[in-house]
């Protein structure tokens, strides 16, 4: 994210209290079109002229201001409640004071701040750099992000090594996520608006480094993460390492749900294709003292000896 405005020259603030210092920073930022950051602490309807508008209430170092819904983003949000507690970039659009007061309130504009940040970003951005991205939208398969004001879509395959079935169950609008730039084409006036690809997965350890801990024809416990009628069951040994299994024999009438712990026998490990195939071992198929067949055979042997 862009560097936050700091207090580099304390002499100009001598004799001022904290609120007056914050007000001075707001006034300076308005004059210079600087980007500031503030936390959303409330949600209020505010009247601007004859129009009432839902606004995020911002707290900038003790000075409260308002970020109107139509100044948050060009993206259409269904509600603003998920933004409470989040930090937003903004430029000061208007300062409002009452006669006799040294401080007042401010009206913020985030769309303009994002434009300033995006221009700055394109001038300095390079592949392999890491940024904090703002989640502005989510569907089951994609995160819609803002990286320093630049909009980018990140598919779930780049979110994590674990393949989430529905990203809406994992993330919320307004959350932040660290991403690395994997591909970039800077804008060319009149030709291109620029192109950006990012990945969060690349920042994590590759779980396939741990495949040495698993062997073919061996048995392991895992958690059921997905059921695909056309493919089978996905059993996760550890985050990012999943075994694809057919529907187990004898499963008719049994209900399976996500999170169930199941035993699997690994049939094949394909390191090139990064695929693991296996079989689900249901409890009644296990061999041992807990097996009904094992107990019956013991009883039969005992009876024959008697």
TrEMBL record:
- Annotated S1 motif domain ranges read 128-201, 217-285
Tell me which GO cellular component terms the UniProt record holds: ribosome
Identify the InterPro entries for this entry: NA-bd_OB-fold (IPR012340), S1_domain (IPR003029)
Keywords tagged on the record: Ribonucleoprotein, Ribosomal protein
- Drop me one GO molecular function for this one: nucleic acid binding
What's the protein name? Answer: 30S ribosomal protein S1
């Amino acid at each position: 994210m862009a560097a936050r405005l700091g207090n580099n020259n304390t002499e100009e603030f001598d004799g001022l209290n904290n609120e007056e210092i914050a007000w001075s920073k707001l006034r300076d930022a308005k004059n210079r079109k600087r980007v500031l950051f503030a936390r959303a602490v409330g949600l209020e309807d505010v009247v601007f002229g004859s129009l009432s508008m839902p606004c995020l209430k911002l707290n900038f170092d003790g000075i409260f201001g308002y970020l109107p819904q139509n100044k948050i983003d060009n993206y259409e949000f269904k509600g603003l409640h998920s933004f409470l507690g989040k930090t937003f970039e903004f430029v000061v659009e208007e300062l409002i004071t009452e006669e006799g007061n040294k401080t007042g309130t401010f009206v913020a504009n985030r769309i303009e701040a994002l434009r300033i940040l995006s221009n700055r970003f394109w001038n300095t951005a390079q592949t392999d750099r890491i940024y904090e991205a703002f989640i502005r939208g989510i569907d089951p398969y994609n995160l819609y992000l803002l990286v320093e004001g630049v909009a980018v879509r990140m598919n779930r395959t780049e979110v994590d090594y674990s393949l989430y079935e529905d990203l809406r169950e994992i993330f919320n609008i307004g959350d932040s996520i660290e991403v690395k730039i994997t591909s970039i084409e800077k804008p060319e006036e009149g030709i291109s608006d620029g192109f950006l690809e990012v990945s969060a997965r690349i920042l994590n350890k590759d779980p396939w480094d741990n495949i040495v801990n698993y062997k073919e024809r061996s048995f392991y416990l895992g958690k059921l993460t997905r059921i695909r009628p056309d493919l089978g069951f996905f059993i996760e040994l550890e985050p990012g390492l999943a075994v694809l299994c057919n529907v187990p024999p004898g499963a008719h009438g049994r209900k399976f749900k996500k999170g169930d712990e199941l035993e699997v026998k690994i049939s094949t490990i394909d390191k090139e294709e990064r695929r693991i195939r296996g079989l689900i071992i249901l409890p009644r198929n296990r061999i041992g003292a807990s097996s009904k067949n094992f107990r019956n055979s013991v009883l039969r042997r005992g009876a024959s000896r008697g």
